[in-house]
Specification:
Blueprint lengths: L5 E2 L1 H14 L3 H21 L4 E2 L1 H39 L1
Parallel strand pairs: 1-2
Length: about 90
């Protein structure tokens, strides 16, 4: 008799939130993907014979972390650009 393995709900939520983090909910979806991805992977490790979905959780984590990294780079570029403009304007005055 084989045991039917089901996919972790948290892993599916992580993947969906990761996709939403790139489309409709830019920052909130990414944070949700990261949190639920880590929770899903822990849940799957606690129940290895019963739960599947580690790939979904990892995909959600990757999408979430990539989105957050791009947000940080974008904000840093924004601050450096406008800070540089302010510095340059200060030198000219």
């Amino acid at each position: 008799m084989s045991i039917v393995r089901q996919t972790s709900s948290l892993a599916i939520v992580s993947l969906v939130a990761g996709i939403l983090g790139w489309t409709l909910l830019p920052f909130v979806g990414s944070i949700g993907a990261i949190i639920t991805g880590h929770l899903a992977r822990a849940e799957i490790r606690r129940n290895p014979g019963r739960l599947d979905g580690d790939g979904f959780a990892v995909a959600g984590l990757v999408l979430g972390w990539l989105s957050v990294a791009l947000w940080v780079v974008g904000i840093l570029a924004f601050v450096l650009f406008f800070g540089g403009l302010a510095w340059f304007a200060h030198l000219q005055s």
